[in-house]
Amino acid sequence: MWVYRTGEYQSDRQVILYDYQKTRKADHPREFLKDFRGVCVTDGYQVYHTLEGELEDLEISGCWAHSRRRYDEAVKALPKSEQKMSLAYLALSQIQQIYHEEAELQDMTPAERRKHRQKFIKLLVDAYFNWIRINIDKVMPKSKTYNGMTYSINQEKYLRRFLDDGEIPIDNNAAEQSIRSFCIGKKNWGMCDTINGAKSTAIIYSLVETAKANKLRLYEYFNYLLTEIPEHMDDKNNDFCEKLLPWSAELPAECRK
């Protein structure tokens, strides 16, 4: 299940779309994003980087949460008495400093956020990558810490991209949270194992999660959809759908929280 969603700083019209495909091949996001213009914040999956080279108006930005995750796993694998003396812990501490500074920027305009990132956070990012290059030869190859360091180095171009644009979030945690609800739900419907069922599930999740992201009351909203849509079954076009969208000013007041 591929998930695409609006960035957290574009808050007026949140969209969350689930797209079921049978494989993880590049063909699927290539088709989905072929007309997209802008920045996608992703993990380090090579498919996204391939698409950036193919699509002129697509830019990929990296996820610092994925970079942090590898060090967190390395620290947890150590005895408690050794954790704070490890290089993985030092790496975690540096990333936490970056996050701490970034947390202060949530209410800023994109221009203010970019200016602050360039002035303060860029120094922390520079220091982090310099530290990795100094210490990477001190850890065992194929260890979790080494894996974390090489991940950051390989993704450096993308991990730095948020510094230059105040509208780019530091990670794709918003998308991760959208994936989580699907992963929890799928335990309840293991018997639904057809392709058509998966595609229907993607549509339903897209509607539900987008409604939640736009602060709608789910029961009232879906009651309105299921009452309104049958009235337009004979329409020759789908123009009426505009007024049903989660951000439509024509939605009944009871649909909103």
Keywords:
6% strand; elongated; two-stranded parallel ribbon; 4 strands; 257 residues; 2 domains; two-stranded antiparallel ribbon; mainly alpha
Give the secondary structure arrangement, pairings included.
Blueprint lengths: L1 E4 L10 E4 L7 H6 L5 E4 L4 H9 L3 E4 L2 H13 L3 H4 L3 H17 L6 H26 L8 H11 L1 H4 L13 H13 L9 H19 L4 H11 L29
Parallel strand pairs: 3-4
Antiparallel strand pairs: 1-2
Integer count of domains = 2
Give the CA-CA distance, first to last residue. 29 Å
What does the largest sheet look like? 2 strands, antiparallel
Instruction: Calculate the mean pLDDT score and round it.
Output: 93
- Structure class: mainly alpha
Number of strands: 4
| General form | elongated
Number of helices: 11
Radius of gyration: 22 Å
Identify the strand order in the major beta sheet: 1-2
Question: Helicity level, as a percent range?
Answer: 40-55%
Low-pLDDT ranges? none
Strand content: 5-15%
The sequence of SSEs as H and E is EEHEHEHHHHHHHHH
Protein name: IS66 family transposase
Organism: Coprococcus hominis (ex Liu et al. 2022)
What would you say this structure looks like, in words?
The chain is mostly helical. It folds into 2 domains: 2-58 and 173-255, no CATH class; 63-164, no CATH class. The protein has helices at 27-32, 46-54, 64-76, 80-83, 87-103, 110-135, 144-154, 156-159, 173-185, 195-213, 218-228, and strands at 2-5, 16-19, 38-41, 58-61. The strands form 2 sheets. A two-stranded antiparallel sheet has the order 1-2. α3 packs antiparallel against α7 (144-154). The radius of gyration is 22 Å and the shape is elongated.
